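User: structure tokens for Medium-chain acyl-CoA ligase ACSF2, mitochondrial, please.
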Amino acid sequence: MILGNLACTVTGACIVIPCEIFDAEQVMKCVEQEKCSSLYGVPTMFIAELDHVNFVKYNFSSLRTGIMAGSICSTELIKSVQSKMNIKELAVCYGMTETSPVSTQTLPNDSLENRVTTVGKVQDHVEIKIINIHSNETVQRGQIGEFCLQGYHVMIGYWNNKVETEKIIDNEGWLHSGDLAIMNDDGYIKIVGRINDMIVRGGENIYPKEIEELLCKHPAISDVYVIGIPDRKYGEQVMAWVKLKSNITEVNEEALHDFCKNQISHYKIPQYWKFVQAFPVTVTGKIRKVEMREIAIQELNLKLKKP
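Assistant: Done. Predicted tokens:
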């Protein structure tokens, strides 16, 4: 939203605000009526539009570009937006409110592989590093670590809150994002999850995005999120929250378990499944995994809690 409004303002482009509170059909109506060329949103918004019962009634031929950001974007979702909504030049961005906001971005001339699996390259005004979460040493390309940023775009600090500021910005001015990332040999960044979302099952590190990416390929699934929940034997177990497509009713846990077999390691296959119509989200449409975990603990009557 911030980048979209600023970009339109500095270039004199028209800004269309379809509704005060997000409504998928109202957005689609505005795209058709106003012949919008660009569409911005978080992944849950694009999913709501694609899954809407009236999606096929609307004309998206005017769309050309847009930005998807705000949380991890699945490969399957990006491909669907490009093909079904005509957003061929869709950009995926990585940013934080604390970094003004965007720090990396894919470009239209990037390869399809890089546009659907990464958040692009770092922007010219930004300095980054990826560090080992235990030693704080910079890792080699291809290795997972915490994504850190530095530059004039980084906030000075949280207003009147020195304690919280010092938790996220170190003595050298590096902002620690809390996100786990990998840089490939060509400099493209892939976000693999949040440090706090990483599941440790029996000593094995499990990254939810890998499982989410796989399950999103299932033809019956509209959206899915994976969390870790307490387990007395393994420390944590894997749980998947699944939203099925509107016309699907006959997919069960066993079918999804079988789908995962031979595609990911056995210990990564969800032990628990929860089918839902919607996910807990913030006012800006971001998924609240903390709330999902709290609900799961209560429903499954689990007493152990992740530190």
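User: Anything notable?

Assistant: The two ends are 34 Å apart (CA to CA).
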